[in-house]
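We modelled the chain as a single entity of 179 amino acids. Its sequence is:
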Amino acid sequence: MVDTNTTEDNLDLKDPKVYEIGYLLVPLVPEADKLSIVDEVITSNIKSKGGVVITDMAPEMRKLEYTIRKMMNNKYAKFSDAYFGAIKFELNPADVASINEVVKKSDHILRYILIESSRNNEAKPAKQVEGVKKIASKTKTESKSASTTTESVSADDVKSVDPESKKVIDKEIEDLLTS
């Protein structure tokens, strides 16, 4: 039987695409071994599938914004810092799933993200959403009028608060704090 699906579906899986993987390497890895572990877990697997590394950022120790847990030796370990690195590479889409599985199963990778990227680091322009310009210009107008109002108030006006009003304000603040 002849396969009639030799159109774009199969061509998309054969044409290499550019991907980027950002990863957090566990901080238990010795400083001297971090590059060899990245090579063993990620880079060598990309190359073994016929991929080409375009750029890579060597992992550097970073403080994490929140603690991340990882199961290691049947116990959860908590990490508040990790080595952060990234690799941009070109690979056939059919082989990306196997790279994903290898990285996912690695004990050395704390967390990672694998995305399709572009060869040059150009960001795609965002589409202009209808009505955004109107809102932005309205906000600018409002901020101009607010600044005009602020400018028209003098320091003498602020200091000249009558004592009775000050007592009322102090009482309201005290009531708020005690409730």
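As a brief sanity check on the tokenised model: The beta strands are 17-25, 52-72, 75-91, 109-116. Residues 132-152 form the longest helix (21 residues).
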